[in-house]
Amino acid sequence: MDIDKVKLLRKKINIPITEAIQLLKKNKGDIALSEHVFHSNNIKEIQKNTDCDEKTAEENYKLFSYDIKKAIQKINERGIVLTTRESKIPRNEIGFILWPENKNGETYKTIKRNDVFIPTADFEYIIDEFKAVFPLKDPWTDTIEDYFDTCSHNSFNAETSNHILKKIKMITHEDDKVQLFLQEVITWFTKTLEYADYIIIYGNL
Fold first, then answer.
1. Of 7, 35, 88, 108, which has fewest CB within 10 angstroms of its CB?
2. Which segments of 53-175 does DSSP mark as H helices, in order?
């Protein structure tokens, strides 16, 4: 192995000498290609640990000067917005926050944020499925809630949430953006209900 190439590669990317040698061997001594493969693999690793798209992974990877751990942490701390609009960037707006809780009414401590925000206009596509299960007994106060409260907390146990999920799966829409939104909602509920005892929905009106 050409030691000068190893030195040049390590000047471009901060890696151990053994890793530099391996990269160069796999890429036939091509320094530029080795550097590209290194960064490409890191971006894939970020995607794997955050479930984000390639563009988001690459942007945060560069933002934090190619530090994988910092990029992953930042992406996993971001708020998730489920919406029909193209921009998924969180912003101050009226809507509903959904998150999972355990049987003691405690939120789960996870590496990734497990709450989502749905703007009011988008929640309209599914709100009837939540309204339909009322009246419900509030698990924390033992009182009967007669209706879905768009301005406060609503608690749904796992059984009720799964019933609602089945109803949402039956909704179809001719607009592809709406259909994609519905699928994102279904995916979130499906994954979350693998461990959650309750789904809480809070309207911030």
1. 7
2. 54-63, 68-77, 120-123, 127-131, 158-169
Helix (H) or strand (E) holding 157: strand 153-157
State mean pLDDT over 71-85. 88
Q: How far apart are CA 121 and CA 27, in angstroms?
A: 51
| Domain range summary for the chain, segments of one domain joined by + | 3-77, 80-203
How long a stretch of residues is the chain?
205
More confident residue, 72 or 110: 72
The rounded distance, in Å, linking the Cα atoms of 164 and 189 is: 10
Tokens of residue 29, six digits: 């001594």
Nearest to 135 by CA among 126, 127, 124, 143: 143
80-203 to CATH, choices 3.40.1760, 3.40.1350, 3.90.1200, 2.60.120: 3.40.1760
Question: Side chain identity at 198, as an amino acid letter?
Answer: Y
pTM: 0.72
Percent of the chain clearing pLDDT 70 (strictly above): 99
Say which residue the tokens 């909704």 belong to.
171
Name the phi and psi angles at 117, rounded to 5: -120, 135
For the record, the structure tokens of 204 come out as 């911030």
d(CA 165, CA 174): 20
